[in-house]
Specification:
The chain is mainly α. Helix content is about 85%, strand content about 0%. The protein starts with a helix and ends with a helix.
Length: about 200
Amino acid sequence: MNDWYDAEQRVERAKEFFDQHKWQEALEELRAAVSLNPYNGGWFFNIGLTLDELRRADNNEGPAALAHWCWYVCDRASLAVAMAATNYAVEGSTGEWACVVCSESTYADSLPEEIRGPATRWLRLHAEYDDTHPWEALEIVATLLGHSPPAAEIEAVRRAIRATYYYSEMGLNHAAAGLLHGSFDETASNASTLGALDAA
């Protein structure tokens, strides 16, 4: 088999995934196909369509809320408030989360060996240095606010940090609910299996 044939096969699988509304799987197959054969412009168009569907997917609202909040606060608020909401609040909780994920090899072992190192690099880096990074961000925020900041600015920083934690929790709850309940097909399959067990 050659790379071009493999690319064509991946595009066929991507179409199947796309038709099943499995946007992420379709996107991965299309990206793999383009890496094998970057000369098919239609495949790049298909990546765009798939990304568009992925952005509009109903199951994307929880994680998208944090991204939207970060964009919004960075666009509309003062630099101190934006830094507090993104660099301090996001990086702080990300560092703690990365430490938990990296404390065991479960996640790394779930990845193919040839991509394990590059795929976990970001996590490992954040697990190593994020103990100090949020404090450095907080020092920058304090410097931006100055020695006697107005009470309203302090309250704006506090609200921004709380909002970041709220949107982070929303995204994590959304992901946890998906893991807990599974897809409709998984739930229907489990229900029919349980029904068969009850009948036995």
